[in-house]
Amino acid sequence: MKVNIVNIFLSLFFFCSKPRFCFYPLISTWLNPYLCGVQKLSLQNLNRLSTEEFRQAAKIPCIAVLDNVRSMHNVGSVFRTADAFRLEKIVLCGITGCPPHREITKTAIGADKSVLWEYSPSALEIALLLKKEGYTIAAVEQAVKSTPLHEIFWGEKPHVFVFGNEIDGISQEVLEICDLCIEIPQAGTKHSLNISVAAGIVLWEFAKGYLPLLPSSA
């Protein structure tokens, strides 16, 4: 309501004034955020951790495994999501590209330097190893017995989320040893979501219960 009043006032003022020029949209854009209580934060206001602080900070009990992800841009995007939600690490498997790489850095915007990662030639081997260490192995895939994301109860165990190839999805051998298979419900015409989008959605659903509990630093 305040914004509408400001716009009406400024419209009348500039309509009655000469010359009118183009000052109205500039002043209106500048005043509205203050009057309606919305103002963008600067990078300094966000008060993010440094790379070294991030490395030392507490993490959520979660690992992302990329199983033969082809696109370097998708890999970089998952790095950025992993940084945002403070994942323990990312495991890059099979043909998945590894840092340093120009295309990964382009979408990771430095997160490839903050997030811990490792490479494994086999997603199956790393999934079996982490399963022995007590992690719940969760495949993000469309499958016969998949569970809709909004119906998942996470429990208290640490989780590994496996994301697969853009065309073929997760390897069948990996699916067979997973503890659960998660599907993101869709209502449109397309068969699937981009892997980096799916990772963002699923990792946020898991992380949102942990993030308020994390200290701001190590």
- Average pLDDT across residues? 88
Weakly predicted, low-confidence segments: none
Order of strands across the biggest sheet? 3-2-1-6-4-7-5
- What would you say the CATH architecture of the largest domain is? 3-Layer(aba) Sandwich
CATH superfamily of the largest domain: SPOUT methyltransferase, trefoil knot domain
| Computed CA radius of gyration, to the nearest angstrom | 23 Å
DSSP summary, beta strand count: 7
Helix content percent band: 40-55%
Proportion of residues in β-strands: 15-25%
Counting structural domains, the number is: 2
User: What is the chain-wise order of helices and strands?
Assistant: HHHHEHEHHEHEEEHEH
Q: Determine the structural class based on helices, strands and strand pairing.
A: alpha/beta
Oligomer: single chain
Q: Tell me, what's the shape?
A: globular
CATH topology of the largest domain: Alpha/beta knot
Name of the top-level CATH class of the largest domain:
Alpha Beta
Q: What's the end-to-end separation, in Å? A: 43 Å
Q: How many helical elements?
A: 10
Characterize this entry briefly.
By secondary structure, this protein is α/β, with parallel strands linked by helices. It has helices at residues 2-16, 23-36, 43-46, 51-56, 72-84, 102-108, 111-114, 123-132, 172-175, 195-207, and strands at 60-67, 87-93, 117-120, 136-140, 147-148, 159-163, 180-183. It has two domains: 2-36; 51-213, 3-Layer(aba) Sandwich (Alpha/beta knot), CATH 3.40.1280.10.
